[in-house]
Amino acid sequence: MAQNTSMEEFEALLNESFDIDTPDEGSVVKGRVLAIEAGQAIIDVGYKMEGRVDLKEFAEPGQTPEINVGDEVEVYLRQVENARGEAVISHEMARREAAWDRLEKAYADENRVDGAIFGRVKGGFTVDLGGAVAFLPGSQVDVRPVRDAGPLMGLKQPFQILKMDRRRGNIVVSRRAILEESRAEQRAEVIANLEEGQAVDGVVKNITEYGAFVDLGGVDGLLHVTDMAWRRVNHPSEIVTIGETIKVQVIKINKETHRISLGMKQLQDDPWDTVEAKFSLGSVHQGRVTNITDYGAFVELEPGVEGLVHVSEMSWTKKNVHPGKIVSTSQEVEVMVLEIDSQKRRVSLGLKQTQRNPWEVFAETHPEGTQVEGEIKNITEFGLFVGLDNDIDGMVHLSDISWDERGEEAIQRFHKGDVVQAVVTETDVEKERISLSMKAMDDSFSDVVGGVSRGAIITVAVTAIEDGGVEVEYEGMKSFIRRSDLSRDRSEQRPERFGVGDKVDVRVTNVDQKSRRLGLSIKAREIAEEKEAVQQYGSSASGASLGDILGAALNRDDD
C-alpha cells in the first residue's frame, strides 16, 4: 500500500514538472549565485538548470566586481544546455537587454541617461549606459575642444541620446548638450541680474586676436579689442592676461542670443572730450606713428587720440609715394592740426605743413633771371625736368632749349644725369611750377641789338630769296622781311628783284628780346623818308609833286 502511495506522489511531481514551461532561449531570467570559483559565478536559473558567468560581467567599467553567494541576479539565457549539460547564460547581455528597454523609453521621452566613458575609439569615446555601449563623438564631449579626456574617464555623469537603432545596436550620445543646457539655465539666471551700463568684475578666460572672453560668474562676455582702451591696441594681450580679474562695463545684452558685450575704456575718461581744447587748428604737436596704410599714416597725439596724415599732406615734393617710404611705425614726428571732427572722432593732420613750402623758398631766393644749375631728372616729349634745391624740379620747355635748333632736334642732345645751366623765367608757387630757359643763357642777341631801337635805320645783307619774302642778316642775327614789307610800291614788292648778298637799308619795326627777332621793313623806311622830305621841303598839297620834292631834297644834299 505504501509502495503504491509513493509511486502516485512521484507521478504527480513528474506531471507537475512537465506543466512548468522551460524558459525560451533568448529571454532574461532570474537566478541565484550558488558558488564563486575560478573567476566565475555558478548560477542556478531554476528549471533544474545551472550556468556559469565570468565575474568581469558583474563589474562596472574600471571597477571590481561586487557579487556574493546567495545574490539574486538577472541573466540572459543564450542556450538551454551545452555539451556539458549546463545552461549558457550571460549577465552582461541581460543588462544590455534591460538597458535597451530603459534607453528606448528615455530616448522617446527625451530624458537624460547616466553613463560612464570607459574607452577611446576613432573619432570619439565609448560610453557604458548601464549595460549598453554608446558612441560619444569628440565634438560632443564639451562645449569647447577637450585636449585631455583623462579626468572624464570612468566618471558617472548624465548624457543625452542623440540617435539610437536597436536593430543595428547603434547609440550616439552627447555630453555637450547637457552642458549647454545647464549653461543656458545658468546664463539666463546671470543675465537676468545684469543691466546695460553696469560695472562688474570678471575673470579673463580666453584671449583671441579680436578680444578676450570674460567669465562673469557662469556666463561669458566678449571684451572686444576696440573697447579695451581709448588708444590703439594691436593685440588684447597688451591689456589683459588669462586668469586676471578685471572690472568691465556691460555695454550691450542680447536677450535672445544671450550674448554680452563688455568694455573697459568706458570706465575711463574719454580723451575726445578735451581734444578741441588741447589741439587747436593750426597748432603743431609731437606724435608717434602707430599705423601706416596705402592712403596715409595714423599718428597718436596722446593715448586714445589719433589723427590721420593723408598721403597728400605728407610731403611737398614726394608725390604718388607710399607713406611707408616717408615715415615708419613708432617714429616720432611733428605734425600740424588741419581739421577736427569731434562727432566722427577724426583729426586731420599735416606733416608737410610743419616745413616751409619749397616753392615759396625758391621764389624768394631765386627771382626771375637767376641762373641755376641742376641734373636732368627726366626727359619728356615737351621738355626737360631739371633737379633744383629742396627736391623740387624746374622745366625747360622745348621752345626754351635752343635759339638755333628746333626743340625736337635740340632735346636729342641731352640725357638723364646731364648737368645743365638755365635761367629762371617764372615761378608759380600755387601750381608748384618753375619755368627755366636754356636759351636765356645766350646773351649774344642783347650784345648785337643793344644799340638798336625801334625806328632805327640799319643796313642788312640778303641771305636767301623766298616766295614770301627775303631772309636777311644783321651782325650774325637772322631776320625775315615779308613780301608786303619789301616796298611801298606794290609793283615793287617782288622778292626776285633782290639778290643774295645785296645790301639793303631797312627800318626796325620791332625788337623782340624773348624770340630774339628784329622786325624789319623796307616799306616802313620809304614811308618814313617820304614824311621827312615833305616836312622839310614842302607839301605835295601846294602843287609840287613828290618827285619834285625828293629831287629838290637830293639836289640840296649834293650841295
UniProtKB/TrEMBL annotation:
Keywords: Repeat, Ribonucleoprotein, Ribosomal protein, RNA-binding. Residues 26-92, 110-176, 197-265, 282-352, 369-439, 455-523 form the S1 motif domain. It comes from the Bacteria. The keyword Iron-sulfur does not apply. GO terms for molecular function: mRNA binding; structural constituent of ribosome. SMART domains: S1. One of its GO terms (biological process) is translation. InterPro entries: NA-bd_OB-fold (IPR012340), Ribos_protein_bS1-like (IPR050437), Ribosomal_bS1 (IPR000110), Ribosomal_protein_S1-like (IPR035104), S1_domain (IPR003029). GO terms for cellular component: cytosolic small ribosomal subunit. The keyword Amino-acid biosynthesis does not apply. It holds the Pfam family S1. PANTHER family: 30S RIBOSOMAL PROTEIN S1, SMALL RIBOSOMAL SUBUNIT PROTEIN BS1C. Binds mRNA; thus facilitating recognition of the initiation point. It is needed to translate mRNA with a short Shine-Dalgarno (SD) purine-rich sequence. Belongs to the bacterial ribosomal protein bS1 family. This is 30S ribosomal protein S1. It comes from Palleronia marisminoris.
